[in-house]
């Protein structure tokens, strides 16, 4: 349980948001060219990091906009929030 | 068994004020090398070591546990055991486990308090009714006992349920598996640990794995907080931390680790003599032998390793519980906790070889691994010993996410476990 600082609405309770999982998984440009292994990688395989993770959230019970969050999954501390299309902050890896 | 528990040993030890009971399992320092190492000293890991030693004659094995045995999800679940899954592969897997449960106390000479008190799954809407009836038929075709109960029969089986038609989650019926039930979760870990230790398995607690040493496409050993240990077979049974271990070997798994919560009430006199689950509202309840109501809630939607969950998840579960069981409205909750569950996209487990030789994974049990503990250990031991899966776990391979041959239990049975 934590607060998320929505870039459009400000700080709100996490229960207002829905998690979109790992961020920066790029949709394949040419799906018809993809091998089964590449499909599995895109669809199913996840880093599932214990530590600093880049992820997507949606303010489902608010502005309904998507944005990115950098969060430490070992203590649920949010380190950074940035909008869709923006470059991820470089000081986290 | 050297120190067999029996009524005579109980009397004998009573005469010395129970001060001379022998330690149930050893506390050794790690050797330099093992034939096989199991990473994770929960129920599944200890069961794997037990069956490796017992059925496959591997004696030089170690179980590494970063905390204390049974302190992870084994000690955090709501102890529900059932096998009424929809698909043939799941039915085979979970009913294999249920059959082992039925004889487990005798097998281990340790009372795991397996109680076949029945598990009832409720239907709250027309789709639930159709799905549950379909599952009942599928179960019976697979030789698993299952019956459909209408609303009156539900009320008769568990009189404290509110079956009024005008509530938010009206009870339209339910399924019942009478062979299903509960067991004492700690006893399962302790019983397997005692049995394995007796056969020479080293159970090494407070020993965290820090790295996997690879030589090309095969494993050579483990870096741990107690030094390097050589082995060429590693079975990883690390539940919520499976991805962390996989990452050490450069593997990625189709898992997301999320907090799942449970809570217990103050102890009261016997009021509910079965297990009632409601998948639609993410609420399930039973009563422990101490008298506490044991309540399971849902998972949080986000990845987290914090072993705590969000307040709103508990609140929603308790709202549903209170409407279904108005008699509980003045109960006080004593404890609440979370465990980290590793969830597969198809809500079925992975008991599989990997593309690294000597590295095996038993993970992805998600919200319902406890019920499978004996079967999971047995089949994983078979997979490690023979380097080939048993026919009962062949469908639960890692390659199914590439081939597309998923065992999709999400909609069918596995929303709540």
Output the keywords.
heterodimer; A: mainly beta; 4-stranded antiparallel sheet; 6 strands; 9% helix; globular; B: 417 residues; alpha/beta; 8-stranded mixed sheet; 6-stranded mixed sheet; 11 helices; 24% strand; disordered C terminus
Give the domain tally of chain A: 1
Query: Strands of the largest sheet of chain B, in order across it?
Result: 5-6-4-14-15-16-13-17
- Could you tell me the CATH topology label of chain A: Folate-binding fold
Which superfamily, in CATH terms, is the homologous superfamily of chain A? Folate-binding superfamily
Strand order of the largest sheet of chain A: 3-4-5-6
SSE ordering of chain B: HEHEEHHEHEHEEHEEEEEHEEEEHEEEHH
Largest interface: A-B, 26 and 27 residues
Q: Measured on Cα atoms, how large is the radius of gyration of chain B?
A: 21 Å
Give the second-level CATH assignment, the architecture of chain A.
2-Layer Sandwich
Radius of gyration of chain A: 15 Å
**For this entry, what is the oligomeric state of its chains?**
heterodimer
- The amount of beta strand of chain B, in percent, is 15-25%
Distance between the termini of chain A: 24 Å
The largest sheet of chain B, given as strand count, sense and whether it forms a barrel, is: 8 strands, mixed
- The counted number of beta strands of chain A is 6
Q: Uncertain regions of chain A: pLDDT < 50 for 5+ in a row?
A: none
User: What would you call the shape of chain B?
Assistant: globular
Number of strands of chain B: 19
Shape of chain A: globular
Number of helical runs of chain A? 1
Explain what you see.
- The complex is a heterodimer of chains A (93) and B (417).
- Chain A is mainly β.
- Chain A has a single domain (3-92), classed as Folate-binding superfamily (Folate-binding fold), CATH 3.30.2270.
- Helix content of chain A is 9%, strand content 37%.
- Chain A is built from 1 helix and 6 strands.
- Chain A is globular, with a radius of gyration of 15 Å.
- The relative contact order of chain A is 0.25.
- The model of chain A has no long low-confidence stretch (mean pLDDT 95).
- By secondary structure, chain B is an alpha/beta fold.
- Chain B is 28% helix and 24% strand.
- Chain B has 11 helices and 19 strands.
- Chain B has helices spanning 7-15, 43-55, 88-101, 104-108, 126-141, 151-157, 185-198, 242-248, 311-324, 373-386, 400-403, and strands at 36-39, 61-64, 80-81, 119-123, 147-149, 173-177, 181-182, 202-204, 209-215, 218-224, 227-230, 234-236, 256-267, 275-278, 283-287, 292-299, 333-343, 350-353, 359-363.
- Chain B has an 8-stranded mixed β-sheet with strand order 5-6-4-14-15-16-13-17. In chain B, strands 8-2-1-12-19-18 form a 6-stranded mixed β-sheet. In chain B, strands 9-10-11 form a 3-stranded antiparallel β-sheet, with no helix packed on it.
- Mean pLDDT of chain B is 95; it is low at 412-417.
- Chains A and B meet through strand 3 and helix 1 of A and helix 8 and helix 11 of B.
């Amino acid at each position: 349980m934590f607060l998320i600082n929505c870039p459009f609405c400000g700080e709100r309770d996490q229960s207002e948001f829905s998690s979109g999982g790992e961020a920066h998984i790029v949709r394949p440009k040419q799906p018809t060219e993809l091998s089964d292994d590449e499909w599995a990688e895109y669809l199913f395989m996840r880093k599932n990091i214990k530590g600093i993770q880049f992820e997507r959230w949606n303010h489902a019970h608010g502005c309904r906009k998507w944005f990115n969050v950098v969060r430490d999954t070992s203590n649920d501390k949010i380190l950074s929030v940035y909008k869709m299309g923006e470059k991820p902050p470089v000081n986290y890896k | 068994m050297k120190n067999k528990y029996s009524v005579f040993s109980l009397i004998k030890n009573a005469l010395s004020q129970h001060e001379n009971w022998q330690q149930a399992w050893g506390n050794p320092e790690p050797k330099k090398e093992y034939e096989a190492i199991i990473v994770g000293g929960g129920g599944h890991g200890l069961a794997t070591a037990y069956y490796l030693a017992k059925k496959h004659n591997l004696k030089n094995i170690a179980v590494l546990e970063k905390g204390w045995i049974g302190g992870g999800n084994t000690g955090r679940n709501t102890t529900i055991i059932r096998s009424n899954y929809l698909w043939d592969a799941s039915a085979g897997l979970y009913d294999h486990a249920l059959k082992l449960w039925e004889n487990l106390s005798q097998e281990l000479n340790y009372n795991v308090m397996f109680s076949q008190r029945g598990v009832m799954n409720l239907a709250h809407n027309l789709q639930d009714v159709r799905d549950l009836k379909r599952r009942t038929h599928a179960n019976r075709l697979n030789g698993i006992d299952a019956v459909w109960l209408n609303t009156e029969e539900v009320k008769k089986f568990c009189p404290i349920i509110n079956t009024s038609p005008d509530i938010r989650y009206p009870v339209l019926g339910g399924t019942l598996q009478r062979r299903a039930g509960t067991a004492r979760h700690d006893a399962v870990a302790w019983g397997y640990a005692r049995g394995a230790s007796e056969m020479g398995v080293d159970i090494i607690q407070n020993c965290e794995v820090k790295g996997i040493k690879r030589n090309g496409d095969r494993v050579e050993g483990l870096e741990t907080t107690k030094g390097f240990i050589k082995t060429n077979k590693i079975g990883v049974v690390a539940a919520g931390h499976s991805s962390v271990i996989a990452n050490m070997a450069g593997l990625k798994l189709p898992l997301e680790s999320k907090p799942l919560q449970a809570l217990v009430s103050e102890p009261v006199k016997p009021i509910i003599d079965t297990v009632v689950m409601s998948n639609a509202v993410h609420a399930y309840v039973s009563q422990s032998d101490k008298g506490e109501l044991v309540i399971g809630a849902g998972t949080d939607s986000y990845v987290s390793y914090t072993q705590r969950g969000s307040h709103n998840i508990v609140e929603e579960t308790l709202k549903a519980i209170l409407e279904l069981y108005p008699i509980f409205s003045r109960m006080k909750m004593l404890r609440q906790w979370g465990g980290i569950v590793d969830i597969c996209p198809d809500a079925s487990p992975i008991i599989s070889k990997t593309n690294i030789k000597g590295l095996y994974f038993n993970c992805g049990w998600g919200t319902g691994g406890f019920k499978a503990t004996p079967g999971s250990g047995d089949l994983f031991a078979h997979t490690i010993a023979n380097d080939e899966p048993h026919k009962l776990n062949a469908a639960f391979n890692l390659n199914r996410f590439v081939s597309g041959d998923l065992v999709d239990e999400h909609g069918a049975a596995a929303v709540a476990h």
